Structure prediction request, 173 residues.
Amino acid sequence: MKLTKLAASFFAAASIVLSAGIASAQTAATNGTNGNYIGAGVAVGATSGGQGNDEAQIGGNIQGRYAVPNAPVSLRGSVLYGGDAAAIMPIVTYDAPIAKNTNVYFGGGYSFVTDEGQKTPLGNRNSPVVTLGIESEVSKNVIAYGDTKWGIDAYRNSDADAVSFQAGLGYRF
Prediction:
């Protein structure tokens, strides 16, 4: 059942991202952004595992992006903190330009919780992560970003998934 939900979510998000990429290929003015950045902002956990010490958390995020040259792929790092631990995530994404200086991205990685069993905005144990987001260069060297992260089976003593929403500003370098 969980694999079916994962596959359905993956295909739905992939179709949105790929549709944006196809649509962007049809307009020459759509170049997206290829900037590398590091940023910080808020992280809001939206789920609970139903056990003790795993309720939804509000905290912060630190996120970075390295755009792979000449490829629609980026390497990202994310730290969600708040509660009693932090979730550290290496993530690979497919990036699709949708407007000038703006991309949507979709990808996956893994969440490593610094102290398993303790609260973070994305669950309380190590888990695979899927992300879907948007980023835009809003002024010279300033990137605004927002995304959703889905931690699969991310709670200890529960088979519940975790969802967290992030938003922030980054410095492009």
